[in-house]
Input
Amino acid sequence: MIYCAIIGDIVQSRKIEDRQLIQDRFIGTIDRINQNYNNFIASNFTITLGDEFEGLLFSPSKSYEIIEAVKKQMAPTQLVFGVGIGTMSTQFSKNTSLGSDGPAFHYARKMVNRAKKKKPSICYYSNSPEDELINSLIYFIESCTFEQTKRQKQIIDLYEAGHSQEDIANLVKIKQPSVSEHINNGFYHEIKAAKLSIFSFLKDKYEEYGS
Output
């Protein structure tokens, strides 16, 4: 059976001034991920080294969504992530991923080390030719996001939260055509399409037809 391992690591955690505050937020974030994605989790996400966590999924297609949720809840603290898709060599429990071993985790460890050294901050590996296509799409997403202005980020966040363009215009006190312009210039549609491509590929390859 194919599983999806995720390892996340806080960037330069030793340089963070209020480490207790970040640690408390980290614990809360991981707890919420385990609750919100319980049906997709084979082995609960667990904090392993204080500034690192790992977990195992049944559903590779949920991996990017879960990583985005972690990033959003931990912001502005930055993390890097390694994602490994493969088999497991040992038995594992639902309660914790500690002690689990197999190619999925080996791949994830390899990728988190790669993400620490170069972009993108999220790297996938499954020992298949498509890996670099996924990583290139993530690099594209991160590059587009980096180019967004503060106002574009604000408007896109509101739009993704379900507000209409008219509501957003009233909230930020600009006209609706300007809202549309900020959404378009902030690469919203391009980013959305790239994320959908990642999700669809992972779901089609590993969940609908198997591997």
Q: What stands out?
A: The chain has two domains: 3-127, 149-186. Helices lie at 19-36, 63-74, 103-117, 131-147, 150-160, 165-172, 176-185, 188-208. Residues 152 and 182 are 5 Å apart (CA to CA).
